[in-house]
């Protein structure tokens, strides 16, 4: 219902745009592909807050329309439902010249979700990036690719610096995403090298916060939802594998700084929180916060699951003056509170 509503709202706005005053018609636009997703929806909100006119493009494959609930009535916000694998819709192409910024966040990013349709994941990375780069080229817009720490695979170097070339298994189940993003980076840098687009590439490490999908399958969302609903808490492997978790507002701040920075775009930049910990420690914190008494269920470690991951963020600090500010305890408390409300709303709907 909400999806239909969003579609209608965007069509209405499209019609309204046709009749708007010249100044409005000429207002610069920012495209956020994947803008209804977890990180994308926070990015759209932050861009609106700084006065940008945001066109959010999303196929709602893994995103939730409810992530946009707070934005849909905003006069500078438009939602367009489309898949970046397909040629961009006419509603975007007909005003291509007005875009000054193109953010590409479009891709399922959680392992169970990107592995569900691996061909589509690979095409989203490759074709999607090509379509959006061509739009940026046509518009003379700056393009930002959200790449991933997964380009480092199961890393032999720790922490991971941007000049580490990675250890990815191109025949494994994570390859559709890892290699897809590596190809997307290659294409983005080729557009820059040949002068076709001004680009920025962020390599995003594990990020958490409100708007994560409860069924995302990621460790933070799984553990919090399991703890809050009293279901067994799933730990894959023995829980000694490490990750470094960044709160979403810090990440969005990094993305916007990167987009607006006048750096040489030929260098990818790690964005993440270097506070590394074993998954077991994350579990302890979530149990502490929620008071959960649910049993822990150990499951096999997924194939190619990286043993360790931690960003070296020296480059982001030096070039963008960026560092994460939100502590894990603060961020987890906000995330638990958000999931608690979501779960209560879900239960209320289920009972209705
Ligand atoms: N993980 C876990 N329990 C879960 C989900 C994930 O122990 O319910 C583990 C997973 O095997 C990995 C880590 O937590 O070692 C982070 O997984 P996630 O899917 O969040 O991100 P990624 O593997 O992409 O870093």
From TrEMBL:
Keywords: Decarboxylase, Glycoprotein, Golgi apparatus, Lyase, Membrane, NAD, Signal-anchor, Transmembrane, Transmembrane helix. GO terms for molecular function: NAD+ binding; UDP-glucuronate decarboxylase activity. Residues 31-272 form the NAD-dependent epimerase/dehydratase domain. It comes from the Bacteria. It is a single-pass type II membrane protein. Its main location: Golgi. It is found in: Golgi apparatus membrane; Golgi apparatus, Golgi stack membrane. Its cofactor is NAD(+). GO terms for cellular component: cytoplasm. GO terms for biological process: D-xylose metabolic process. The keyword Zinc does not apply. The keyword Phosphoprotein does not apply. This is UDP-glucuronate decarboxylase. It comes from Sphingomonas metalli.
